[in-house]
Amino acid sequence: MKKNLIAILLGSQCLLSSGFATDFDVQKIQIKNISQNNRKFDMSIDVKINQNQSGDWLFGFYMPRTYNSSKDVNPNLTLKVTDLSTKKSANLSYVKKADNLTTMPIYGDGYSNLFRATTDFELEEGHIYRFSFENNNLWVPANISSLPQSFFLIDSNGNVVTSNANLDAYISKNTKEISSIQGYDSAKINIEIQKKLQSYVDNSIASDSSEFANQYHLIPTPLSISNVGSKQNINSDNGVYVDDSNSKQNIKLLNQYFKTDKITTNDLKAVTDKSHASIIFEKDLSIKNKEGYILKIIDNKIYIRYQTNAGLFYAIQTLRNLYQKDNVGSKNTSNMLILPQVTIKDQPRFEYRGILLDVARHYFSVQTIKTLIDAMVSQKLNTLHIHFSDDEGFRLALDSVDVKKASTRGYNDSSTIPTQMYQQANLDKSNYFNQKIKDSDIISPNYPTAATIYEGYYSKKDIQEIISYANARQITVIPEIDLPGHAKALIDSAPDIFINKSDKSDYISVQGYYDDVLPVCLYNRQILKEKSLQLRLIRL
């Protein structure tokens, strides 16, 4: 292998339904570094044609590099297709949105690259063609996911044929190892992964109280653990005493946990006599941290002190950790809880403890988000940041937006959004979740292709449900909508509102888009009134 040959990917297997002959096979991909600083590279793709294609065809693929060009991006780019049998060749052009495509309203944008021959150039059955892309200046691909994938051909009638190579296509037939990609060393990377995982384990071990915390799976480790003693037997039938009426909702939550975890058979009852109760919730303003609490188990009773409902809620989560060990799954019919004698004082070390969920690129159902919220609760996290929009999808059902169009990705003859929104087929099966396959004869339900339809959005009711579910579990929801950039999906959903036809700007974003910015300077009250643009916030 030559020193500057970064990758040779061999393979002809495609993820297609059995018995269905694809119109083309990707046989070889080559990436070659042509600069000292790894900035520029050449690429070639060898394709075998299995069915004649007239001169009016389109060839495309997904790759985290654009083959569009401007003054600074790919200014010296050369695109060509060559018949390796006859040596006949033709130049290629990158198909942009502005091109007049009356029969095939499809174009390249972002990381979706689409090309056509500049002259009439027929692809003949049985011939192998080399698609050459030279002088790309957007850095040499450094891993397999950065290489071209999701290949497709579109014939003169607008029919799309896909060809996804599986993992074998990324393995050299000579060495049976993944080809070298800019110094890629799988063994070295695996070592680094193990080091990082071990560091997570090391950092999670507390210097004090670690034995008890590990035994009862207390995550995160409480601030202090003391007075550990013998097992206590708590009769849940004796009820719960709460001195703060605002905290009674936590009785319902604890009762729900007991039922879900099969701890008791009877509902917990609220009692007014503290001396008779087995579980006692008491507000304590001396606890300075609003999310702090003191959990004490002694004399066959559970005492929880807190300043706010948040502290009580987190104390209940710790209690839930404690009873999991000796009670869950024990088919308890006596409604007796077995818990260790202990005093736990805790408060968060960080005020913000959150997760960012990107639903723009991958839609998650309301139920899946609720499952995530439940997992966050187990780790005492308090903020869910939801990324609702990006170039690849706009997922909020607003009155003035065609959300069906804004939230759909994929290409076929009835697609509502152009192919630049189709998914990356990076050999990750999670990409397949929630997809709706439109044509089982074209693709196998293993990995997405250019023809895979992927959709999903959230109604106002869905958003209200998510927020209510999160807030009941002490989690704040932060909605994020990318504007004015990263707005490709929103722009495509209402082009008469969001496209300024007099704008002659020539730009290419880092992600390869050239039309994903709203013309904010164009708008004024009169324009908004004329176009009936109403992007109102959802009120609960």
What's the helix and strand layout?
Layout: E1 5-10, E2 24-33, E3 41-49, E4 58-62, E5 78-83, E6 89-94, E7 112-117, E8 128-136, E9 149-154, E10 160-163, H1 186-204, H2 210-215, E11 224-226, E12 231-235, E13 240-242, H3 249-260, E14 270-271, E15 279-283, E16 293-298, E17 301-306, H4 309-327, E18 336-340, E19 342-346, E20 354-358, H5 366-378, E21 383-387, E22 389-390, E23 393-394, H6 403-406, E24 435-436, E25 453-454, H7 460-471, E26 476-480, H8 488-493, H9 495-498, H10 525-530
Helix pairs in contact: 5-7
Q: What name does the CATH topology of the largest domain carry? A: Immunoglobulin-like
SS element count, helices: 10
Between the first and last Cα atoms, what is the distance in angstroms? 63 Å
Structural class: alpha+beta
**How are strands sequenced across the largest beta sheet?**
1-2-3-8-5-6-7-4-9-10
Using the 3D structure, state the CATH architecture of the largest domain: Sandwich
Count of the domains: 3
pLDDT < 50 stretches = 1-21, 175-180, 412-420, 425-445, 533-540
According to DSSP, the number of beta strands is: 26
Radius of gyration equals: 30 Å
Mean pLDDT: 81
So what's the overall shape? elongated
Q: What would CATH call the class of the largest domain?
A: Mainly Beta
Proportion of strand residues: 15-25%
